[in-house]
Design a protein that fits this description.
Helices cover about 35% and strands about 30% of the residues. It has nine helices and 14 strands. It is elongated and about 80 Å long. The longest helix has 22 residues. The strands form three sheets. The protein has a seven-stranded mixed β-sheet with strand order 3-4-5-9-8-7-6, sandwiched between helices. A five-stranded antiparallel β-sheet has the order 13-12-11-10-14, with no helix packed on it. It is an alpha+beta fold.
Amino acid sequence: MTIKEQLLLHLKDNMDAWISGESLSQQLGVSRAAIWKQARNLKEEGYIIQSSPKKGYHLCEISDLLLPGEIRERLGNNLFGGQQIYYYKELETTNLKAKELASQGVPEGTLIIAEKQTKGRGRRGRSWFSPAGYGIYASMVLRPSIAPTEISSITLMAAVSAAEALIALTPLNVRIKWPNDILLNDKKIAGILTEISSDMDIVDYLIIGIGMNINTPKDLFPPEIKETATSILIETNRPFQRVEILSEFLKIYEHYYINFKKSGIEPIMGRWKELANIVGKRIEVDVMGQKYRGDVVEIENGILILKDHGRTHRIFSGDVTIL
């Protein structure tokens, strides 16, 4: 553990009081000048620390940056978030960096985080608004021993995990829009982007990317999405700690991922159907300009089974409108 990490731990243990520089110097075995330097470094990382020549140091507020240390502290030795984390102030997209690292052989569970994306992407080539410091932009590297036909299951788990993280930590009643968008009052609050590298019969690696609007104010959204996107801040009128929500998502996803490897997707599909509430509904699906209408009779491994006047359509991806 570095001096900076030790100092942060001591400050967190004493958040309700001041702790003198002399005491910290003795406990950490370094000079008071070294304590001052590391406290300054922590302030640059977003920690709100008061300092006084007479009183010492007082940690007032934890940083809201998505720092690897904060995530590991919450997740311990978990596969996702407790292992290798690559943290960036800015990237084109976290999925692009994750694919680059995955092709170089980084292990399953590797997490890539950016405070800002300059070319954030959503499904079907759409952009994802990714301003610095307001949202969660992260990608995970997975190496499951599955066939390419099963990858939709991995995406469904991510959608359920994102929804459940929001339900657990906020007062919001979110739902899933097939296949993997998270909606609140029919506005998008989060989305999942899955990308794959595979041979004919087995997956080499999967990238699960998540974008989530946490503290984005309404006037910051571009005009073209201002009426269709929302954030936790907009819906609750108060900010939330991004690192708490990301950590909760990773914890829940790991739980489902372990169960998936043991028991397959069926136990998880029940929860997905509850959150999506689409089975039995009449819908229209736009698949690259081709529109299909019908009743949703089932979701099989993420595939939408649509029936209309005796005809059955199996839809792998598209934009859904409830009729």
